[in-house]
Write a structure and sequence with these properties.
Blueprint: H1 3-14, H2 19-26, H3 30-37, H4 45-58, H5 60-74
């Protein structure tokens, strides 16, 4: 567990994006974002795409970095 969570946690910290801001951008409860960031639950593949879309709306550089970290963590 946690490949997406680790990447998401780093991106949120590096780009000063709050869990709440991401939750609002995704139209999900903040506790879902909390679970992903703290590796309590892995987001589905579809949710990972939604995370990228939301990050892109908040900060395109953050979306790019998330994608890089997520792919990097896969290998």
């Amino acid at each position: 567990m946690g490949k997406a969570g680790k990447a998401l946690k780093q991106v949120l910290e590096d780009y000063s994006i709050s869990q709440f801001a991401l939750a609002v951008a995704m139209d999900v409860e903040r506790n879902n974002v909390y679970r992903w960031v703290n590796e309590k639950r892995d987001p589905t593949a579809e949710t990972v795409l939604e995370i990228v879309r939301a990050l892109k709306a908040l900060n395109p550089d953050a979306a790019k970095k998330f994608g890089e970290l997520y792919i990097e963590n896969e290998y």
